[in-house]
Structures are given as C-alpha cells and as structure tokens.
Amino acid sequence: MGQLISLYKYYTTRTDDPDPLTTLTSREVFLVQSSWDPIKKDLTGYGVQLLLFLFKKYPEEQQNFPFRDMPFEELGASKKFHAHCSNVMYAVDSIIDSLKDGELLVNILEKIGRNHHRNTVKPISFWHVKETMLEFFKKMMNDETLKAWDKALQVAFGVVAKELDKKN
Ligand code: HEM
C-alpha cells in the first residue's frame, strides 16, 4: 500500500515532465484536475455562477449570446440560460478530463473554436472567460493551483483563439 501511495505521489507531483504538446507537467495537471473535482459535482450550478460573474465583469459579453435581450436580473431563473451554462461547463469538463492526452485535447479545442467561429465569437471573449474563471477560483484555490489553471487555460484557449482567428 505504502509503495502504491509513493508511486501515485511520484507521478502526480513531477514538475520536470512537461507534455510536448501542452507543456503542462504532471503536477500542473494533477492540481487542475483535483481542484476541478468539487466543481464537477454541480456543473450547471457553477456554470450559472460563472457566466453571471462574466456578465458582471464584462457586460458587453452578454451581447454575444442567444439570450442577449434578456435582462441580467432574469438570467438566473431562466432555463434557457441554465442550458447554455451546462453546455459550456460540460465542454470545460471534457477539456480538463483530456489534459493528459494532448492530441485529443487539441481536437476538442479546435472543434470548440470552429463552432464558435460560426457564431462569430472573437478570441477576446475567451480571454474574458479565462480572467473570470481565475477570479472566481480565487476563493476556492491556493496560489499554486491558480497558477496551474492560468497556464492550462492559456494553452487551451490559445488553440481556440487560433481557430477563431482563421479567415473562413
Ligand atoms: C464569452 C465567450 C463565449 C461566447 C460569446 C460564446 C458564444 C456561444 C454561442 C453564440 C453559442 C451558440 C448558442 C446557440 O446557438 O444556442 C455557443 C454554444 C456553445 N458554447 Fe460558447 N461561448 C463562449 C464561451 C464558451 C466556452 C468557454 C465554452 C467551453 C469551453 C463554450 C462552449 C459552448 C458549447 C459546448 C456550445 C454548444 C455547442 C456548440 O455550438 O459547440 N462556450 N457559445
């Protein structure tokens, strides 16, 4: 048992093994995935909180969504809004889940980029989501974990942004 625990610790705390595609180390992946676990238990609930926080921080972002005409105060009770929050969070969940499989991760991210390209979303919107997530996580995560999230989101949304920047 002791041996198993030290093997687990060895593989989850390595800081010298950056993935060739994502540059994330085992330690960074471990920090991001383990801090996502409590959020995973209520993806839609956290998604609603996150998107409401996004619109508070960047009110112009609401204009890029299908519920642009709904007053901010009514969003929290709208199932249409909840459904979108759920979509976003399940997509984030599949990103976090595939951090250890760089090739799968890039394919998921390019697909998200292509789908949002169709909706004429600009990269700045994804950077706003990143800033919102980091600020939201501040109350639940320590500095090392936040730094790992910052790096993971930078890498992930960088792939999305590249797709969004494509001409067609
Ligand atoms: C501010 C940034 C974002 C904007 C403006 C945006 C906008 C949109 C729009 C307009 C749609 C189409 C909705 C519809 O037709 O009903 C959509 C769908 C969707 N969004 Fe976003 N989105 C943003 C961020 C994200 C993020 C960060 C994720 C997850 C990583 C995400 C995941 C999805 C998914 C999974 C769908 C539904 C399926 C699809 O079209 O891929 N979105 N988004």
Automatic annotation (TrEMBL):
**Span of domain Globin:** 23-165
Transmembrane helix in keyword set: no
Q: Does the keyword section mention Manganese? A: no
UniProt-recorded Gene Ontology molecular function terms: heme binding; metal ion binding; oxygen binding; oxygen carrier activity
Q: PROSITE patterns under this entry? A: GLOBIN
Keywords from the UniProt entry = Heme, Iron, Metal-binding, Oxygen transport, Transport
* Superkingdom in the source lineage: Eukaryota
Instruction: State a single Pfam family of this protein.
Output: Globin
Signal peptide (residue range): none
What is the similarity comment for this entry? Belongs to the globin family.
Q: What protein name is recorded for this chain? A: Globin-like Protein
| Species this protein is from | Tribolium castaneum
